[in-house]
Each structure stands twice: as C-alpha cells, then as structure tokens.
Model the fold of this input.
Amino acid sequence: MKKQKIVIANWKMKLNLAETIGLAKEIKIKFQDFNKGRVVVCPGSLSLAEVSKIFKASHVKLGAQNVFWEEKGAYTGEVSTEQLAETGCGYVIVGHSERRKYLLENYEMIHLKLKAVINSDNLIPIVCIGENREERKTDRRDFVLVDQLHQALGGINILANQKIIIAYEPIWAIGSGVAIEPAEAEYAHKIVKLTLNDIFGIEKANNNFDIIYGGSIDGKNVKGFAKIENIDGLLVGGASLNAEEFYKVARAILK
Ligand code: PGA
Done:
C-alpha cells in the first residue's frame, strides 16, 4: 500500500491567541474540500484547546510543539503526553532545533521524550534531526544524522502499529528563506532510511516510519520536493502562517 504523505505546520511562538484562532479558521475553510494525505497544525501550547475545537470533524489534525518525558508530578512548566492527548493532539514535535539551541535540549532528553510519547500510545512523535552549518561545512552531515538517530531511537521498542515521523531539518536552512536542493534532501533521507534499517530492520523502517523534510519550504520551492520518491512529507514553519501559502504546499505534495 502506498503511504499517505503528510504536511505539518509549525507555528512556533509567532501568533497571539486571536491571530491563532483567525488562522486556524482560515485553514479549516481552505481545507474544507481537501481530503488527500494528512494535514497537521501545531499551534502554541496555550491555544491548543481552542484550535482543537476549530479542527474538530475537519481533515486537519492537531499537534503540539513540545512535551515532557515524565507522566505526572512536580515538573513546573512542563506538559505531559496525557495533557496533550486530552486537548485533542494526535502529534507532537520532539527535539526541534530551536529547543536544542535555546533550551539546551539534547538527544538524551529527546530519547526520554520519545519513549514517553511511544508509551502514551495516543500520540505520533515528530522527531527532529539535522546538522548545523559548521557540521555541513566540514562534511560531517552523514555522521551527525546517524549519531542523532542512534541517540534518539536506540533501544526503543516499537509496537507493530506505532508510527514515528523523522523530520530532517538542516538547521542552517530553517527560517533562512532558502531550502536545500531537493536532491540533497533525497540523499539525506537515504542516510536516515539506512540508519533506521540498521536499528529496527527493513520491515519496521518501511512500515513504522515516515521521513519528512523541513527548512524554508514555500509554495514555490515545494514543487522540487514533490518529485522526490523518498520524501514522505514536509514540516513547514514560515509558509504555514499564511493559509493560502500552506494550502499551496499541501496541494503540491499530497496527492
Ligand atoms: P521554516 O521552519 O519553514 O520557517 O524554515 C521550519 C521548522 O522550523 O520546522
């Protein structure tokens, strides 16, 4: 069976509540007659409950931008998998590079978060990996990707129906306005795939994982990525803040 591709919007901390609600309503209308692939929107955590109501009974699903690894307890400021599921989230981003940079999140933490999400049984994790500019310049990208995947996923026990999304996001391309060449994403995705084969075996790597690209995708450059065989979808930041532009991206990649 051919995989359903996925497009995920990451609204980061860019909108206040009124703006979030406005954009969610616009997106709901845009996608009213659209039933291809999977569409996910990840708004800021304080607006999840409101956006959940808007996307109820719509093709658009809800995701969160972060989660904590403990189930419950004295963890001031953190949000659990149960709390996310309660608000209607079906997806959660884990280890975005902005959290790695500003909150010093490392792959040990990402591993714990991933475990918690998998154990919770009702969320699909979107695990972010990707090299920075220096690592790219010094030709260490392949090693970095393999290492990040091993740290995040090593020792994780995946159940037959558990899905995991790996988002390859070269850090230097995020928010830069310039995506990488599609051929380069194709190559990086091969590295990811081979590493998943190594860790989990070919069958699980094929059936349980999606490999998506993120970094300055927009309505124009998406066409190059739509042609590539081994891209299961896209993680979209800036371009997802405009309903029309996000719709263009979704239409190009989801067929
Ligand atoms: P961008 O963000 O599309 O604005 O580059 C992507 C991301 O950070 O996930």
